[in-house]
User: What shape does this take?
Amino acid sequence: MIETYLLEHLLAFHKFGTLSAAAEQLHLAQPSVSRSMQKLESELGVTLLIRSKNRVELNESGKLAAEYAKRILEKEEEMIRHIRAFDRANRTIMVGSCAPGPLMFLFPKITSFFSEMTISSDIVEEEVLLQGLKRDDYQLIIAPKHLESEEFYCQKYLREHLYLSVNNFHPAATYKSITFAEMDGQNFIMYAKVGIWEDILREKMPHAKLYKQADLDAVGEIASASDLPSFSTNITQQLLPSRVMNRVNIPFSDEEAHADFYIACKQSDKKRFSALLNLLKQA
Amino acid sequence: MIETYLLEHLLAFHKFGTLSAAAEQLHLAQPSVSRSMQKLESELGVTLLIRSKNRVELNESGKLAAEYAKRILEKEEEMIRHIRAFDRANRTIMVGSCAPGPLMFLFPKITSFFSEMTISSDIVEEEVLLQGLKRDDYQLIIAPKHLESEEFYCQKYLREHLYLSVNNFHPAATYKSITFAEMDGQNFIMYAKVGIWEDILREKMPHAKLYKQADLDAVGEIASASDLPSFSTNITQQLLPSRVMNRVNIPFSDEEAHADFYIACKQSDKKRFSALLNLLKQA
DNA sequence: ATCACTTACGGGTGACGTAAAAATC
DNA sequence: GATTTTTACGTCACCCGTAAGTGAT
Assistant: This one.
C-alpha cells in the first residue's frame, strides 16, 4: 500500500510544478522529493513523470495519481477533524438555555456530577434550543415551557423572579414592589445575554432603554458606579451576592416577572443524567 | 498526517477484534500493532481504545476512525487499480475487428509502427465495435461497413474473398468455383472466431454443421488429418501458407463470399495512426 | 553561473522482532 | 497453562540531508 507521505510529496509536486519548489513547500531537501517520486513509480509499477534532462513533469498517469492523492489526503484530513470533533463532543456536555439564571444555578451541580467533562453553554432562543437538542448540539437544555415531544425527557426545574435593582437613592428604593409600567421609559444597564427576559422587558417596557453589557462582571461594576437601575432575580441574588452591595432589590409584581423553567434531555440520555435530574427535583 | 500503515493496522484490528489476530493477519508481531494503536491515538490526540488489563476494544471514536480507515484504504486501492489500468491502456492499442483475416493482415503492420506498445485484439460484433470505439475500449476497429459518424475517421481497408478448402480427394476438388448452395448440409471444420463470416455461412448454408475450433492452429491440423472441408480466404492463404498443403482452395462464386472491410479510429486519434492508415491505403 | 534533477553516501528516526512481565480466563 | 496486552531492548530499514555530478538555460 502507498504511504501517505508519498501522496503528500506527489501533491506538492503537482501543485508547485518543480521538485525543488515542492521540497521547499514541504520543508524538505529536493532529493527527498525526487526519491519519493521514484518510489511511487516503482510501487505502482507505472511511470508518472516525463523526465527531460533538466526538467520533470507529470504525465497523464501522474496527473491522475495527483488527483487521487488530493482526494485521499482531503479524506484523511476530514478523518482527523471529524474524529477530534467527535471525541471532543463525547467529553463535552453542551447545555443550552433560554436564560442565564437557571444556567448559573445548574453549572456547579453539573460540574460536580461530570467532573471529567467539559461543560459548554449557550444562551439562545427557544427554537434553537429544541433544534439543538434534537441534533445533539445540546445534551441538556433549559426551556421556558414544558416539552411534550416523545423524543425528550422534560421536568420542571425552577421558578425565577425578576427584581429591580437600584441604589439607595433611587426614588423606587423604598418600594415594597414595583411594576414594569412604573419603570417604563427609564434607562437600564443589563447583561447582554438574558434570553427570554429581554423579550419580556421589551414587551412590558417598550419605552425603556436597555444598555446591554456583554461582560457579566461589568454589569455590576457599571451599576455600582452609575445610578442606573438594573435587574436581578432570586437566583442572581443568591449566586452573585457581591452585586447587592449598596443596592436594594425590589420585586416586580407583574405576572410576567415570574418565569418557570424546565430542564430537558433526550430520552436516550435520561439515564446518564438521572442523578443530576433527581437532585434538581429535590431542590 | 496519518501514515497508511497505521490505518491498515487499525482496520485489521477492527476486523479481527484482537491485536494478536490483527497482527497475524498483517504478518506482524503483536507488539507492532499495539504500538501502532498507541501511535494513532497520540497523533490524533484522541483515545481510540478501551483498555482492560487483558483485553482491548475500540471505543466509539475508534469505531469512527476504523470506518474512515476502511474508506481511505479502499480509495487507495482504487487509486492503484485505476492508475495501473490507465497506464496499461496508454501503452496498449486495442483493436476490435468483425473478422479475423483483416486483423491478421493488420497485426504485423501495427506492431512495426508501434513497436513499444502492446497490441490487444478482439473479434466481436459490429455493434460492440462501435460502442467500444466510442468508449475507448478500442482505439482501432475493423468494421464491415463504412462509418458515417462525425466522431470517427473511417477508410476503406481491404476486400476479402471466401474459399472452400478441401483435400484433393474431395468431390469438389476439381471445381473452378462453387456455391454455398452446393455445399449446404455438409460438415465443416472452422475457426471459432470468424466474426461476420459465421453469420454469412449460417445464412447461406442453414443445413451445414460447423465444427468450431477455438485454437486456430488446430483447425489446420484437424482439417489435414480428417477429410472435412474447411474455409480459407485470400488473406489466410497469404498469411497461413502451411494450411494449404495437400489442399485446394475453390472460390465461392456467391456475392456474399466477397466482403469489404473498413478501418476506423476516433478523429482525435487520426493523427496518431495517420502513417499506418496511409500505408494501408497504398496496399 | 545558475537552475533543476539525479546519484551517492552517511546518519538518525522509527518500525519491527524477540523476550519478558502482568493479568485474565 | 493458554491467551492477550504492554513494556523493554536491540536491530535494521528507510527517510532524510549533504555533497557531488550531469545537463540545460
User: Anything to note?
Assistant: Chain B is about 45% helix and 25% strand. Residues 5, 28-29, 31-32, 35-36, 39, 52-55 of chain B lie near DNA strand C (CB under 10 Å from a C1'). The mean pLDDT of chain B is 93.
